[in-house]
Amino acid sequence: MVFKELLNFRLKDISYKRVLSSMCTVPHPLAVKAHIMFLETNLGDPGIFVGTWELERELIKMLGKLLHNEKAAGYICSGGTEANIQGIRAARNLKRAKKPNIVIPKSAHFSFEKIGDLLAVEIRRVGLDEEYRVDVGEVEKAIDENTVAIVGIAGTTELGQVDPIDELSKIAIEKDVPLHVDAAFGGLVLPFLERKIPFDFELEGVTSITLDPHKMGMATIPAGGILFRDESFLKLLEVETPYLTTKYQFTLTGTRPGTGVASSYAVLKGLGFEGMKRIVKKCMENTNYLVEKMGEIGYEPVIEPIMNVVAFKTERAEKIKEELYKRGWVISTIREPKAIRMVVMPHVTKEMIDEFVEELKKI
Amino acid sequence: MVFKELLNFRLKDISYKRVLSSMCTVPHPLAVKAHIMFLETNLGDPGIFVGTWELERELIKMLGKLLHNEKAAGYICSGGTEANIQGIRAARNLKRAKKPNIVIPKSAHFSFEKIGDLLAVEIRRVGLDEEYRVDVGEVEKAIDENTVAIVGIAGTTELGQVDPIDELSKIAIEKDVPLHVDAAFGGLVLPFLERKIPFDFELEGVTSITLDPHKMGMATIPAGGILFRDESFLKLLEVETPYLTTKYQFTLTGTRPGTGVASSYAVLKGLGFEGMKRIVKKCMENTNYLVEKMGEIGYEPVIEPIMNVVAFKTERAEKIKEELYKRGWVISTIREPKAIRMVVMPHVTKEMIDEFVEELKKI
């Protein structure tokens, strides 16, 4: 009885076959199988879930290697917001400023407003250059004695753009301010691209990185990730845990599923570096195919896509989004410049793009 | 290949058949089935997951009714810590004090220290009475013009004790301070007990309640819950969400699984009020059975159990815990008074208690 009811709710959801707006995707079959195997697990209690905890350490090591730092320390969390909270929180606790502020690009995800409110940290958004990358000069000007972190984005939500993290890294070292890189999306795209764009721990100023396996890692939700340069940063987040099998806890949440760890590991290890590269390559091919098809009907991309996120200029962006939604298709929009925006996730095929462009023509 | 590896990690976890320390349990079969049905869902994007979002509204209504308030507003989150963060954050944002503080019992969960650090709120822990319930006189004394919230616990982690929420409610009204009730554990025990202990929205001063379906609701992890007296509190948590299908977001995390909503709903609706009552009754019977068996070998409970959490006085608590752990059994300890502590969750049977007591005798 209750399942018939649940199914009716579930059927009202829009299928991913019509979704071009989300940075999440259909979980990989390897991820689903691993998820079910770890359904009962709770990483909030590592003394009970000894094996799952070990698996998490293995996964963090794997991700650390991918990000050029075998000493990276961190954990798998609820998603990019928690990861960014913890990155900024560690920086704030390290610097202990009177009236803490952080300097972030205008293009940073809206969740940084949440983080500002939550952590009682002033958010200083600075402008972008012509290519929608943070203006490094403005970052430098915005920093003062109360700045506890600089944020760079590797894969902006709106355009998939990557800030000049190498230059931000130099400033971070010079000014002795932690540099947090939000690579929630790009962290599992950039390492697999032909074109090499530095964004990770190989840049010495980078102190923490957000990287979400439940986005391009095709893991099951929730599987966000926060990695720090070394273990010392975890100490800045620790509280004592009197009732548990361990003495301290550095995570934001207490009870914490092991499913995201298992599903991330299954995909990354199961597919391997080459397998991930193939998937990212396919996404880029499809992104270019979308640009081509959209070009045929007169749409121009805001920037040449760097990863599988692309926006097309149009004054009618909001109207188009609404019309498409009525017809069962989901895209999103950006405000500056006015544009419609799509994310070409692994569930997006050439056939889906064809159908989408046909629908768009009718509007 | 990767699954053999994953299985090896999973097999290192301790089975719930030997766990008496956790407030989590084996998810109910109804929960598992519902979880799998909603595996792909993401409540971070309600315009895509329209049906799952509706289901969540239904679940919140159901929980609201259970807590004597059909107008309750809230959402299903990662767990008790996030729920408590959001309860305190809303209160802090409502009161806007210069140097905010909150007044909480000594018995409050350790995660409140995390919350203090996170939200930059001073934590004032006040003493308990002889029954380990918060001393109401001390609460009153600790409140000043910077107090943004009072916290009461309905089901303390250590003893399952319930603070005099009715008295706290009176103080909250008198002093015009929000009262947050942490019923992460007790919220799905107290409504099903024979003995009626007031703790919820029927007490007028209560503004928010934490209640975790992944504890006594036997839902899959993650399924915490935060409920506010009415929708106005959600406004205090909102940020704008430019790229999503909705305009505002009041949740702490962005991407958010629908699995916890589905699994909570499946259990609560599937079993119904009477079914939940039967399960709670069984847990209480087993708790009393444990007290009886422990009594036979000379252990005395710290307080008569109110719910299915019980602690037994012993100076050797730490030693006993360690010895049992070596033998594959997990219990926990409390510090004041020194005691060993068990939670008699639905996975705990009389047979398991017999085996446990036999093992304990050997030490």
TrEMBL record, chains A, B:
Q: What is its EC number?
A: 4.1.1.11
One GO molecular-function entry: aspartate 1-decarboxylase activity
One of the GO biological process terms:
carboxylic acid metabolic process
Q: Which reaction does it catalyse?
A: L-aspartate + H(+) = beta-alanine + CO2
**Per the record's keyword annotation, is Hydrolase included, yes or no?**
no
The prosthetic group or cofactor this protein requires is: pyridoxal 5'-phosphate
Q: Which SUPFAM superfamilies match?
A: PLP-dependent transferases
N6-(pyridoxal phosphate)lysine sites (modified residues): K215
The pathway that the record names for this protein is: Cofactor biosynthesis; coenzyme A biosynthesis
Quote the Pfam families the UniProt record gives.
Answer: Pyridoxal_deC
Database matches in InterPro entries: GrpII_AminoAcid_Decarb (IPR050477), MfnA (IPR020931), PyrdxlP-dep_de-COase (IPR002129), PyrdxlP-dep_Trfase (IPR015424), PyrdxlP-dep_Trfase_major (IPR015421), PyrdxlP-dep_Trfase_small (IPR015422), Pyridoxal-P_BS (IPR021115)
Identify the keywords attached in UniProt to this record, alphabetized.
Decarboxylase, Lyase, Pyridoxal phosphate
Q: Which HAMAP family match?
A: MfnA_decarbox (MF_01610)
Quote the PANTHER family the UniProt record gives.
PTHR42735, SPHINGOSINE-1-PHOSPHATE LYASE 1 (PTHR42735:SF6)
NCBIfam families on file: tyr_de_CO2_Arch (TIGR03812)
Q: What job does the chain carry out?
A: Catalyzes the decarboxylation of L-aspartate to produce beta-alanine.
Q: Which family would the database say this protein is a member of? A: Belongs to the group II decarboxylase family. Sphingosine-1-phosphate lyase subfamily. Belongs to the group II decarboxylase family. MfnA subfamily.
Please give the name of this protein: Probable L-aspartate decarboxylase
Q: List the source organism.
A: Ferroglobus placidus (strain DSM 10642 / AEDII12DO)
Organism classification, top ranks?
Answer: Archaea, Methanobacteriati, Methanobacteriota, Archaeoglobi, Archaeoglobales
